[in-house]
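Input record, target 12 of the design panel.
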């Protein structure tokens, strides 16, 4: 069968998400991010366009590494201020019937019991249209916001995440039987005793008695998204993730990551095709190539050259150095020997090469500017040659990016058999992405707790 595109609209409840500076366009709607009408309108546009889901990013800290301050981020509205993405989903679900919602939540700072109920609530209210983007949080400021002196080490965060998600599986899959709720008015019986149980989890990081406070929702476990390319992240994804949001950084990493996760998934008892792979993509489309190019150049005039360095927490000031000296030389000039010793930066690159690599919003492997046919050609190459399954569509304009994709690209992709002709009424997000049932398959590790087993 011809591979069909999974397409999410990439969003965040903030003025400046990942297209730095473009909120300043006169007709952009980004400053309305705190208005419920913005999200209602966006959801309707995205559903009319045929998107699979709206994917909501989030951070729980401010970007304060660049210049050693959060002032640069604050000045630009760069992911601060921001709102809780979970609270937006109910409003969007109320005005839509089909589109799904992926919401980001961190496993590092808040306990799992309350989050289990929040996600179950969203799965109920959306009738099974919700997914969870599992993150462990990477901002130093986030750690300080939750009472820690510094960031928890990367691999330790994934150890915490492994236990966190195990608790959630016990609550979502093991605490309530499928037939626990009878809602028998004549007998005055809502839930049958003996079919709902405590989980009594007692682990290294969490103690949770249970039972889960929500009766089973359609999916029970939300669709499991993850964004990671680290060794620990890939191992975690191979065991748990259904949809991996990944990238080709450095060049060639995409193919290696996909192969590694598929191999490890099989070793974990899953199938090689149990995970879908999504990349962030830029699509700037117009009826003609010339119009699309003109729009691309217009967007570039609003580009904030420092935004990417703030966003990537770059610990020096690339724009203050000649572009032909190395990153190591620039760090030495700023006296940042601590950064050199810590590693992690490509010290051999020139400052110019480093700056271009960081600011990938304008030049990346998954960027296409053109007419509908040219865009569809590129997307087909991404699917068939690069081996991805879908995209998170980067927004350069709210709401033109979503409208243009829906009006110009979707019809062409449908003509080529690369997108479904219409939504299937009543399907869950998991059914839409995988074409199977609403719940995780038996081979997924969450299934081991069904019926109260292995608690």
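The sequence produced for target 12 reads:
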């Amino acid at each position: 069968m011809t591979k069909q595109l999974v397409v999410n609209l990439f969003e965040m409840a903030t003025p400046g998400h990942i297209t730095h500076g473009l909120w300043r366009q006169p007709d952009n709607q980004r400053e309305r991010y705190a208005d419920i009408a913005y999200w209602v309108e966006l959801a309707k546009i995205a559903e009319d366009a045929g998107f699979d889901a709206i994917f909501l990013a989030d951070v729980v800290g401010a970007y304060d590494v660049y210049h050693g301050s959060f002032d640069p981020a604050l000045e630009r509205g760069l992911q601060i201020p921001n709102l809780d993405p979970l609270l937006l989903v109910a409003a969007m679900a109320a005005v839509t019937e089909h589109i799904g919602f992926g919401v980001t939540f961190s496993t590092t700072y808040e306990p799992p019991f309350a989050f289990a109920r929040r996600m179950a609530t969203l799965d109920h209210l959306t009738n099974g249209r919700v997914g969870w983007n599992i993150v462990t949080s990477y901002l130093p400021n986030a750690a300080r916001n939750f009472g820690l002196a510094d960031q928890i080490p990367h691999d330790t965060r994934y150890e915490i995440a492994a236990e966190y998600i195990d608790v959630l599986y016990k609550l979502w899959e093991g605490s309530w039987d499928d037939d626990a709720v009878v809602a028998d008015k004549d007998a005055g019986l809502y839930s049958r005793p003996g079919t709902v149980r405590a989980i009594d989890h007692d682990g290294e990081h969490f103690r949770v008695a249970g039972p889960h406070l929500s009766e089973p929702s359609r999916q029970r476990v939300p669709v499991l998204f993850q964004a990671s390319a680290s060794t620990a992240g890939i191992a975690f994804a191979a065991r748990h993730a259904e949809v991996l949001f990944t990238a080709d950084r450095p060049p060639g990493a995409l193919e290696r990551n996909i192969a590694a996760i598929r191999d490890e998934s099989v070793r974990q008892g899953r199938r090689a095709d149990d995970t879908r792979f999504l990349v962030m993509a830029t699509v700037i489309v117009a009826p003609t190539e010339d119009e699309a190019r003109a729009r691309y150049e217009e967007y570039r005039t609003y580009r904030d050259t420092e935004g990417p360095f703030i966003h990537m927490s770059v610990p020096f000031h690339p724009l203050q150095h000649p572009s032909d000296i190395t990153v190591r030389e620039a760090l030495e000039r700023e006296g940042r020997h601590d950064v050199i010793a810590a590693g992690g930066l490509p010290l051999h690159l020139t400052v110019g090469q480093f700056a271009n690599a960081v600011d990938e919003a304008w030049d990346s492997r998954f960027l296409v500017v053109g007419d509908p046919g040219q865009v569809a050609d590129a997307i087909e190459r991404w699917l068939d040659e690069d081996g991805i399954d879908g995209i998170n569509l980067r927004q350069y304009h709210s709401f033109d990016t979503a409208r243009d994709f829906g009006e110009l690209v979707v019809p062409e992709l449908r003509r080529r058999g690369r997108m479904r002709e219409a939504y299937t009424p009543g399907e869950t997000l998991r059914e839409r992405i995988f074409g199977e049932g609403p719940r995780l398959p038996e081979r997924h590790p969450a299934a081991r707790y069904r019926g109260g087993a292995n608690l």
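The mean pLDDT is 95.
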